[in-house]
Amino acid sequence: xxxxxxxEVVKKYLQKVKSPPExxxxxxxxxxxxxxxxxxxxxxxxxxxxxxxxxxxxGHQYHFQCLVAMYNNGNKDGSLQCPTCKTIxxxxxxxxxxxxxxxxxxPHSLPGHPDCKTIRIIYNVPxxxxxxxxxxxxxxxxxxxxxxxxxxxxSERGRKVLRLLLVAWDRRLIFSVGTSSTTGESxxxxxxxxxxxxxxxxNLTGHGFPDPGHLDNVLEELRxxxxxxxxxxxx
Length: 235
Ligand code: APR
Ligand code: ZN
Prior knowledge:
Layout: H1 6-12, E1 14-16, E2 52-55, E3 61-63, H2 64-73, E4 80-81, E5 88-89, E6 100-106, E7 118-124, E8 128-129, E9 140-141, E10 148-153, H3 156-170, E11 175-178, E12 188-191, H4 214-224
Antiparallel strand pairs: 1-2, 2-3, 4-5, 6-7, 7-10, 8-9, 11-12
The structure holds adenosine-5-diphosphoribose and zinc ion.
């Protein structure tokens, strides 16, 4: 992916549009038939023929320049996400800071999962300095409540979720840096869009067991980040 310009990345996922529809671009709210409303830095002129593009898989259409501007606003990892339907092009990665993910099986059952043991995941993310991919580059960030312990049933489905969480960790999608909705603290490590159960034997926080829908919810949240098991075969 390195070496590709933002324009090249965006083009890779687009089909040409001969005559743009009489609709507004939902990125800049200007008509698709006219120029992009985006006049930010780093967006060069494009010829009229390629000024509107259709995302190849989902079909949503935008000004080419608007997509390039959106890409430049993100972490520029070679992937693109449709702002309308969230379809992911390429491999989405996040801005999770450096840290460690470990797991092991503990010989106890979770409420609602009496027939199996439990997987405990331990996340450790130390505080540090924000990089260019974070909201305030150069500024420190805090890290509260680490190590964070999380629990999954050690069942077939629980182990599947664990496999996908390991992929999410490698793609830096488990945590982010921002403002905690629980504490209101800014510039701190926060959970990203994938829910974890942090309570073991009870459910006082709402982040415990039993919760019959939990594994399905997590699989859905992982899918929204582009993380799926491609088929039923074992690796
Ligand atoms: N356990 C698991 N998930 C939680 C918890 C919790 N105790 N508290 C909030 N979440 C979920 C929220 O439901 C939301 O979807 O994390 C998401 C982001 O919430 P924030 O409050 O912004 O995240 P963060 O500050 O990282 O979490 C607050 O979670 O694990 C604990 O120690 C951590 O006390 C801290 C709390
Ligand atoms: Zn536009």
